[in-house]
Amino acid sequence: MKAVPWWSSDLTVLRRQTMKAREELGRIRKENKADQKLNAITTYRDLRNKYKNEIRNCKLKTWQNFVAEIGNTDPWGIVYKILRNKIRNNDISCDRNRNRN
């Protein structure tokens, strides 16, 4: 599997923290610990929101860098085609299926 260009080690750390908080929340719910439940929910939600926001920011920065580099060299190139929906996802998935065989 090919890694996405916007992924970073910071996102990996945030993902692990979020998953641990989610597991902890599940344990607390399973054991019916009402006194710890509210704290676990807020911790998980805060980490999840931080993780999602960081993903959005990384994707946006990567896209802006891509457009700045590639879009300035060829105005009718790949950036134009992506924005005008000239490239279809079906075409890409068909190519991937051909390479697997």
Summarize the structure.
The protein has 101 residues and is mainly alpha-helical. It contains four helices and no strands. It comes from Lasius platythorax.
Overall description:
This is Reverse transcriptase N-terminal domain-containing protein. It is built from 4 helices and no strands. The radius of gyration is 20 Å and the shape is elongated.
* Weakly predicted, low-confidence segments: 91-97
Beginning-to-end CA distance, first to last residue: 16 Å
Which class of secondary structure composition applies to the elements? mainly alpha
Helix content: over 70%
Radius of gyration: 20 Å
Shape label: elongated
Give helix and strand order, one letter per element, not per position. HHHH
Taken as a percent bin, the fraction of beta residues is under 5%
Number of strands: 0
- Summed up, the helix count is 4
The tally of structural domains comes to 1
The profile of the biggest β sheet is: none
- Average the pLDDT over all residues and give the rounded result: 84
Protein name: Reverse transcriptase N-terminal domain-containing protein
Strand and helix layout:
Elements: H1 9-30, H2 34-71, H3 78-83, H4 89-100
Helix pairs in contact: 1-2
Q: Which labels suit this protein?
A:
single chain; 101 residues; mainly alpha; 4 helices; 0% strand; Reverse transcriptase N-terminal domain-containing protein
